[in-house]
Amino acid sequence: MAGEAVYSNALWAFAFCLGLGAVVGVLAGLLGIGGGLLVVPALVWLLPLAGIESQQVMHMALATSLASIVMTSGSSARNHYRLGNIDFALVKGLRPG
């Protein structure tokens, strides 16, 4: 009986995260807003339900959001480099900052 409850909660959490990802993706594409605007509050609400201690919830939510930003930014930078869209003279000027 307890195993069924855990499975049901995990399935519900997976469905929630899948729906949240779809909504964030659409809003980010249409409006140009960052996903953290929706992801961080959702994780702050969802992580305690997963048994995460309240002292760690905000840290984990922000770290998860920042990790997703690093991955998407790195992918975008690589693609812009491949397409030749980077002005390295400008990059050299920004280096001291």
Automatic annotation (TrEMBL):
<dbReference type="InterPro" id="IPR002781">
    <property type="entry name" value="TM_pro_TauE-like"/>
</dbReference>
<keyword id="KW-0812">Transmembrane</keyword>
<feature type="transmembrane region" description="Helical">
    <location>
        <begin position="12"/>
        <end position="45"/>
    </location>
</feature>
<keyword id="KW-1133">Transmembrane helix</keyword>
<keyword id="KW-1003">Cell membrane</keyword>
<comment type="similarity">
    <text>Belongs to the 4-toluene sulfonate uptake permease (TSUP) (TC 2.A.102) family.</text>
</comment>
<keyword id="KW-0472">Membrane</keyword>
<dbReference type="GO" id="GO:0005886">
    <property type="term" value="C:plasma membrane"/>
</dbReference>
<protein>
    <recommendedName>
        <fullName>Probable membrane transporter protein</fullName>
    </recommendedName>
</protein>
<dbReference type="Pfam" id="PF01925">
    <property type="entry name" value="TauE"/>
</dbReference>
